[in-house]
Every structure is written in structure tokens, then in C-alpha cells.
UniProtKB/TrEMBL annotation, chains A, B:
Binding site for Mg(2+) 5: D212
Protein name: Thiamine-monophosphate kinase
Additional observations: Reaction mechanism of ThiL seems to utilize a direct, inline transfer of the gamma-phosphate of ATP to TMP rather than a phosphorylated enzyme intermediate.
Alphabetical list of Gene3D superfamilies matching this protein: PurM-like C-terminal domain (3.90.650.10), PurM-like, N-terminal domain (3.30.1330.10)
GO molecular function: ATP binding; magnesium ion binding; thiamine-phosphate kinase activity
Family: Belongs to the thiamine-monophosphate kinase family.
One Pfam family it belongs to: AIRS
Length: 318, 318
């Protein structure tokens, strides 16, 4: 089976053809149409086996996650996903792996009504690069750099489950089976907050998806907006599974620095909090205030009454 | 230096900002505007060290080639390049390599007035994925599948030099220094036929860039158009460097099956040949007829008066 057959058989999803796709997979280029009045938002991310996912992970989950991380970036911009392109590097032709990959790709593409319009495949170390494309009007495009001091910092859901799930997957954390199953699901197959991003258009003053970890991502908003941030330890939302674990430090570390939950973090004017909560409720998504932007540079965390700076927390990776 | 610094310092080209780029590198998404009346053509290709380029190749040349192969796909569609996104996987932080990469990226981006609007970087086996985006009106988008029997098959320039250059680079071919220098240049830094693609809008009946090798790429047009092809051995254009080598079989094998020249192969109605030649002349590009599409399936090659089928040529890679 050659490169072109692999692309056609395993990357080309033949259902769910979109009307804005004039030419999909199969030529030198894809050709698409951006609707009038919309701008094109795009994001590209590479996942490498052993770095971004476990080398023995199920291929359907790998496909899911590779798409999810890119759609999560679109969500953070308030964009509505439309098309993806997929480049897959594989050490050897493995039909079972490819069938699983195709299944995972099809499932998430269908779920979000996105079409795979371009593909590339070659022999090499296992890695997947996906670029996602979506639509958003220019004046409601959400960015990191547009927040102001005084605004509230919110997130769309529980934090830390995916990082705890990774520990379970790696055998570093022993938990009851029902807890394990929930945490693993959050790690392997996160669902990006696409609907939240669209609802937050014109409401959030800035947004980012939590892919590097809450503290790092709040730091991105703070730095790029030229403000500081004060987060409250006790407001960080945790799932009942995370709360059931008898190790607060590990759980909070996961919530503050684990980045695989793909929730959105956004800022909102205090007067807009209630209407934003109600709007997010219409798409079944929570709006949880966890702190506030301040005029004092840096990200700080209020732990009961003690103030910790992010540097003092000793998380070295940002 | 972290991921974000690397992206900002080495992938973000700070000159040549385009007016259609609303937001470039530095947020979750880039935001761009497709001009009214234009469709968006896009192509993604991954190059892996040791597979698509020599692991010790100069990083400026690697950057050049990674962009060139993608712009070549746009050319084949008749699209005018606008933006690229770059994902770079590197085994370790190597400032000199990254400075060279940046220099090569900047040079070709400036040459073709394309802007790098998105970047991703991570630690992993050396590879580069680039997606190129360009504009083309829907009714003049060039495809592979639209050729008809009786039309002429043409190419835009000499074939085989890049494949011979690879042999020189690998030490498998000894040639005089001036010949080596020309062949190596064609292999390391091909210039995609962007202007030709634009000129061929509305003139060529089908087009492809020669990336898999002439025979394989003519086969793509033939198969996807449901016709056959008859090429003439003696019409295949060779550079004076290739002609100077005393090994016709090796040279012709390079010209017929080497794919790294990134010339365009296109089909044209016989009545349009002269006007097409004149139009390509205005951008300094040749138009060389090398055969004709036929009603008989398969790609055949007329070698003096002997007819060879492509299968009989024993080139196994397609």
C-alpha cells in the first residue's frame, strides 16, 4: 500500500462533506471557501509519540487528541471549526493501527462537523501534525492580549483530571477502577470547549485554552495583556474523582500545572459575569471565577490567607 | 530558551507583514482574511531528516526546501501564495541550526512575499511540517483530473538535475566542480514555479508539480483524468550539466523518476500551445511539450521508435 492509498483509505473521511469544501483530499491542494464576513482562524500542533502521547496509546485516542488540541486552540479564539489537515508520520505500515486511527479521526471530525481536507503521510518516527481552520468575525476574535486589571478570571470546568489520568496510565497512581476510568477518559479523549468559545464571543475580554497548565496559561494572558493575576487556591474547581484522592498537594499540582484538560480560561468584566454564566449554561458549560486580574505584574496564588508567587511555587516549566 | 521564545525568535519573521494578516504568531490562533472573490488553496507537507533531506543538510537549505515543496503544490493549483505555518521538531536546542533555519525561512518567505503566521516547536526527531495557503478564483483552480485525450503534455523546465544533485551530495556521482555546484543547487534550493502556475490559470487543462518523478506524476494526471499518456524520450528536457554527463541511462532515470526538481507538468489543448508559450515567456519560464494524452490507459514512453510501458521500465516506486 503506497502513500496515496494510505491517505485515501485512512485519512480521507468520506462522510460529512461540507458545502464550503470545493476540493478535498486527492490533488496537490485542497480548495475551500471562507464565508463572507468571516475571517479564517488557524492553528497547527504537532504531537510526537513519547513526548505528547504514550507510544503505546490506542491509535483512535491519538487521533482524537491530535484533533482535540487543535480545536481547543480554535475555541480559545472563539472560532467555529470547519476543516482540518493531517500529516501522519509512521515507522511502518500497520493496518490495524491505521484502522483505529481512522476510526478516532472520523468520530471526532463527525462530532464537530469538521472535514479532513488534506493529508500527508510518510515513513518516520510516529508523530501527527494537524492544522485546524475555523471561522470567526474579526471584531469578536478572542485573544490573550486584551484583558484589563480588575476583570475576573474564569475557567469552563474542572482542572487536573487529565494530569492525574496520565499518572494512572503510567502506573504512578493507584485509584479505584471507577475513578481510574474517569481520569483516563479525561486524559485520552478531552473534548475541546468549542461551544464555549463561540458563546464567549463579545463577552470574554481575553481567552486562552489551558494546554500548558493553568498557571502558565494565566501567565500568558497576564504578560500579553500587561497586567497581573491573583488566583484563589480554594476556588480551583476539582472533579469529585480528584477530590476523592487523599493527596491535596498532588491534586492541586495537577490542577495548577497539568495542561491536558483543555478547558478554557477567560477574563470577563465583573458586571458581565452573570450574563456570561447564563449564556454558557445554554450550552451546558460551567463558568467558574477563580481569581482576578490586578495591576501588579506576575501571577500570584492566594492559599487561604497566604500569598504565593508563581515562582515560589517551584514549577519550573514556564 | 523555551518553546515560545524559539517560535518568536526563529520562526516569526518580523519583516514583510501582509495586510491580510490580522493576527500572526503569538496567540492560540492566527487570524487572516481571504480577499473577496478568491478561494483558499492549501497544502501541507512534512519533511523528515534522513527521509526527505540529508540529516546533515544546512538548516537554511532545509527551511528553503520545506517551504518550496509546499509553494510548489500551490503553483500546481494556480494559486498565489500568501501565508505559511511551520511546525518544527528538533532533537535538541541548537542555536546555530535555528539561526540558519531562520535565515533560509526568511529568504524564501520574502522572495515569494509569504508571511509565517503560525508556528509550533517541540523536542523530537528532526522534522518540519509546513502548510502553505494561497488564493485562486474558483473557476481557474488547476487540478489533476481535468485533462482530456489529445491534449499536449508540457513541462516548465529541465528534469533530473535535482536527483543527480542528490547523488553528488551522497558521494555517489563524481562530476567537475562547476557541474556539481549547479546540480547541488537544484537539489538543495529548488524554486517552485509560482509565476507559471498563475500564468497557466485558464490555459492549462490540468496541472501537477513534479514531486514524485515525471512518470509517476504524469500517471497521476492520466489516472485521475481517465486517459493515457504517451511521452517522447528525446523530448525530455535536460540541462547542459546533465547532458555533459556520459551516462544516458542514469541521466534519463533521474529525469523520468527523480522528483525533486519541482517543475510543473501540465496539459494544454494543441491550439493553445503557442499562446501558452508566449504567456510563460513573459515570466521567463519555458513551455516544453514532451508528449500527448491518449485514449489508451497507462503511461507509455516512445524511445526512438520503440514503445515502452511504464511498468516495463521497472521503476518500482509507483
Amino acid at each position: 500500500m503506497n502513500e496515496f492509498d494510505i491517505i485515501d483509505q485512512f485519512l480521507n473521511i468520506k462522510t460529512g462533506q461540507r458545502k464550503d469544501v470545493i476540493k478535498g483530499i486527492g490533488d496537490d491542494c485542497a480548495l475551500v471557501k471562507v464565508p463572507r464576513g468571516q475571517r479564517l482562524a488557524l492553528s497547527m500542533d504537532t504531537l510526537i509519540a513519547g513526548v505528547h502521547f504514550l507510544a503505546d496509546a490506542n491509535a483512535a485516542d491519538v487521533a482524537h487528541k491530535a484533533v482535540a488540541v487543535n480545536l481547543s486552540d480554535l475555541s480559545a479564539a472563539g472560532a467555529e471549526p470547519a476543516w482540518i489537515t493531517v500529516s501522519l508520520s509512521l515507522p511502518e505500515f500497520d493496518e490495524n493501527w491505521l484502522m483505529d486511527f481512522h476510526r478516532g479521526l472520523k468520530k471526532i471530525a463527525d462530532f464537530f462537523t469538521v472535514q479532513v481536507i488534506g493529508g500527508d503521510t510518510c515513513r518516520g518516527p510516529l508523530s501527527i501534525t494537524i492544522q485546524a481552520h475555523g471561522f470567526v468575525p474579526e471584531n469578536v476574535f478572542l485573544q490573550r492580549s486584551t484583558a484589563q486589571a480588575g476583570e475576573l478570571i474564569c475557567v469552563t470546568g474542572n482542572l487536573g483530571d487529565a494530569a492525574l489520568g496520565l499518572k494512572v496510565a503510567q502506573g504512578d497512581l493507584q485509584v479505584p477502577p471507577n475513578v481510574a476510568s474517569q481520569l483516563l477518559k479525561k486524559y485520552y479523549t478531552p473534548y475541546p470547549r468549542v461551544a464555549a468559545g463561540i458563546v464567549l464571543r463579545g463577552r470574554a475580554t481575553a481567552a486562552i485554552d489551558i494546554s500548558d497548565g493553568l498557571l502558565a496559561d494565566v501567565n500568558h494572558i497576564s504578560q500579553q495583556s500587561g497586567v497581573g493575576a491573583l488566583l484563589r487556591w480554594e476556588r480551583i474547581p476539582l472533579s469529585k474523582e480528584a477530590q476523592s484522592l487523599d493527596n491535596e498537594e498532588m491534586v492541586m499540582r495537577a490542577a495548577l500545572t497539568g495542561g491536558d484538560d483543555y478547558e478554557l480560561c477567560f477574563t470577563v468584566d465583573e458586571d458581565e459575569l452573570e450574563s456570561t454564566k447564563q449564556a454558557l449554561e445554554t450550552v451546558g458549560i460551567d463558568c467558574i471565577p477563580i481569581g482576578r486580574l490586578t495591576g501588579k505584574p506576575g501571577v500570584r496564588l492566594l492559599h487561604h490567607k497566604e500569598e504565593l508567587t508563581v515562582e515560589a511555587l517551584g514549577y519550573s516549566h514556564f
